[in-house]
């Protein structure tokens, strides 16, 4: 009986420990079920706080490209490309002006080569080697040009004394005609004009001397350009095809095929222009020269040669050469002969403009008269007489090249387009002919 209270005390202590463990387990389960709320994090220094829910909604800003009107965007795109082209052309013109003598000499060589190349090709077909055919053609061409120049200088020097006497007689006759004319010109007014001319020449002696020195410089440059043009012509006649192939290697591969097709067409246009211009100029010189000769105007042959040379300058050359012939006839033969020379010049020029050029040049070289006027004016302002001479063939060749490249690009676009299918294929497919009727002939491709 004495051990019973000790055993009961131990049992009660055990139950107490079990209850404490159950309470700890219950508190752990309750802690796991309650959600953990993290403390509010401090906002980042660069982040934008979220607006409250009661704030009004703000529309997003549009893209700047979308905000600009479409027409203005197209104008801006075209504008900066035009600026790039204008800058390129300006740099090109500066380079050309810096080496103007070389450029004009090479262009003159191209024109002479276009005139002599058919002769070289004809001699090669006859069996001559390429070098011999080139040498014969070049030597014959240069000798003929030199003989023509020598003949003109010889005629001028041989008739200079006679021309000066005729000019003095013509001036006296013109003076008498003015005194008897209804313009009421007095002899004192004519003498005053002559005195003013004499005084002007006397006061501008230094300018005339400097102009003479500049003339010497121009002659040196002219001889240099002639020699350079002769060498360039010789090499173009002999090795023109190889030079063209080398130029094609400088063209990007994607555009090489189109440029290779445009080159021969441009050369044919240039050859047709030079050959037609030579024929027209020769006809002008012969007919106007014969008219001047039969009217007994002195230096008819040199004037005919000047008319031939100035015919290579479209529009302006005919006016200058015709005016020169009329002035010589006026001061040497009088007003009536000058009027007759003017009639002859105008008649031949009308024949040239309405019959010779359309018949000889034909459709090979077709340039609008406005383009001719603008090209001659721009060429004259840029490079003087040489620029006026090469302006029209340059425009004609450019017109041919642009037309061919446009047609070539259209053909390439059609070639690369996908084949027709569906309704489009039905529309382009050939339809069978009705019963009893022959099928239509196919068009040549």
From TrEMBL:
An annotated GO cellular component: plasma membrane
TM helices/strands, residue ranges: 132-153, 216-238, 272-294, 300-320, 327-351, 371-397
PANTHER family: PERMEASE PERM-RELATED, TRANSMEMBRANE PROTEIN
Keywords: Cell membrane, Membrane, Transmembrane, Transmembrane helix, Transport
Parts forming coiled coils: none
One Pfam short name: AI-2E_transport
Family: Belongs to the autoinducer-2 exporter (AI-2E) (TC 2.A.86) family.
Name of the protein this chain belongs to: AI-2E family transporter
Major localization listed first in the record, in broad terms: membrane
InterPro entries hit by this protein: AI-2E-like (IPR002549)
Stretch list, region Disordered: 24-48, 415-445
GO BP of this protein: transmembrane transport
Superkingdom, natural source: Bacteria
Segments of skewed composition (Pro residues): 37-48, 431-445
Compartment list: Cell membrane
Membrane topology designation: Multi-pass membrane protein
């Amino acid at each position: 009986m004495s051990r019973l209270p000790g055993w009961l005390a131990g049992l009660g202590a055990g139950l107490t420990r079990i209850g404490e463990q159950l309470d700890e387990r219950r508190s752990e389960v309750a802690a796991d079920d309650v959600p953990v709320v993290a403390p509010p994090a401090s906002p980042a220094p660069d982040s934008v706080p979220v607006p409250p829910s009661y704030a009004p909604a703000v529309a997003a800003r549009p893209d700047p490209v979308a905000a600009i009107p479409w027409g203005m965007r197209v104008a801006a795109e075209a504008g900066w490309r035009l600026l790039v082209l204008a800058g390129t052309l300006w740099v090109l013109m500066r380079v050309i002006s810096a080496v103007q003598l070389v450029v004009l000499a090479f262009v003159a060589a191209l024109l002479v080569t276009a005139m002599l190349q058919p002769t070289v090709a004809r001699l090669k077909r006859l069996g001559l080697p390429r070098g011999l055919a080139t040498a014969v053609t070049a030597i014959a061409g240069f000798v003929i040009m030199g003989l023509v120049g020598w003949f003109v200088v010889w005629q001028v020097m041989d008739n200079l004394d006679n021309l000066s006497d005729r000019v003095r007689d013509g001036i006296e006759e013109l003076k008498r005609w003015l005194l008897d004319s209804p313009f009421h010109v007095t002899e004192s007014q004519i003498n005053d004009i002559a005195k003013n001319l004499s005084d002007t020449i006397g006061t501008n002696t230094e300018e005339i001397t400097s102009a003479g020195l500049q003339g010497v410089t121009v002659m040196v440059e002219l001889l240099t350009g002639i020699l350079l043009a002769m060498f360039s012509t010789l090499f173009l006649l002999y090795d023109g095809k190889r030079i063209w192939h080398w130029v094609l290697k400088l063209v990007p591969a994607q555009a090489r095929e189109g440029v290779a097709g445009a080159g021969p067409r441009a050369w044919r246009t240039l050859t047709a222009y030079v050959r037609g211009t030579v024929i027209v100029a020769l006809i002008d010189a012969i007919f106007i020269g014969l008219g001047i000769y039969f009217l007994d105007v002195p230096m008819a042959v040199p004037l005919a040669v000047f008319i031939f040379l100035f015919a290579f300058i479209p529009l302006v050359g005919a006016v200058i050469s015709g005016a020169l012939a009329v002035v010589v006839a006026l001061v040497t033969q009088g007003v009536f002969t000058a009027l007759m020379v003017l009639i002859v010049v105008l008649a031949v020029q009308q024949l040239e403009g309405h019959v010779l050029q359309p018949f000889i040049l034909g459709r090979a070289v077709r340039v609008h008269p406005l383009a001719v006027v603008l090209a001659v004016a721009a060429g004259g302002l840029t490079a003087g007489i040489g620029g006026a001479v090469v302006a029209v063939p340059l425009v004609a060749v450019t017109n041919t090249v642009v037309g061919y490249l446009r047609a070539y690009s259209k053909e390439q676009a059609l070639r690369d387009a996908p084949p027709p299918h569906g309704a489009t294929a039905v529309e382009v497919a050939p339809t069978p002919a009705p019963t009893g009727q022959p099928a239509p002939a196919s068009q040549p491709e």
